[in-house]
Amino acid sequence: MVILRIWLPSRAVGQENGYCSVVVTSPWGDAYASVRSVQPDKRFPQRVTANFNDDVKAAGADTRHRWMFRRLDESRVLRMWDQFKGDIASQWDEKTGARNDHCFYICHRLLLAGQGFDTDDASPASFTQRAKNEQMLAMLAKSYSALASYADAYMKVEHW
């Protein structure tokens, strides 16, 4: 199962753009996909992104805006998250100083991977398929409302 959580913008806690995360629970493993920056911890040096408790603390509470997807390919979502966590997520904080701005893009891309779309930049797919994928990647969500709209549409039309 894949769960998308979206926190709406809140000036009270300093989230002017909102925030999102993805939880994956599957026979292949579990993961909490969040690109929120965390303070380095000597006890866990490999941890570069937030966990659920970090996100709830930063937002002030858990969100009631959740979508549960039961028919996604969780193993593809886990592989894509490992890829992001390995290169992209750890680099963004240094380059932009604000990894949180990219959370909607990352979560949307994870959902697409779970639907079977090839979102890998170094894909061995045909040129035509890669061109179609590039079109899709150009339309990835950049805000909480765009991602929520996509999740709603997918749940109502394609998920079942």
Write up what this structure looks like.
The chain has 160 residues and is of the alpha+beta class. The protein is 44% helix and 14% strand. The protein contains five helices and four strands; from the N terminus they run βββαβαααα. It has helices at 52-59, 74-96, 103-114, 127-138, 144-158; strands spanning 2-7, 19-26, 29-33, 66-69. It has a four-stranded antiparallel β-sheet, with helices on one face. The radius of gyration is 15 Å and the shape is globular. Mean pLDDT is 79; it is low at 92-98.
Q: What is the CA-atom radius of gyration, in angstroms?
A: 15 Å
Looking at the chains present, what oligomeric state does this protein adopt?
single chain
User: In which order are the strands of the major sheet placed?
Assistant: 3-2-1-4
Number of helices: 5
End-to-end gap: 14 Å
DSSP, total strands: 4
What class, by secondary structure content?
alpha+beta
Low-confidence stretches: 92-98
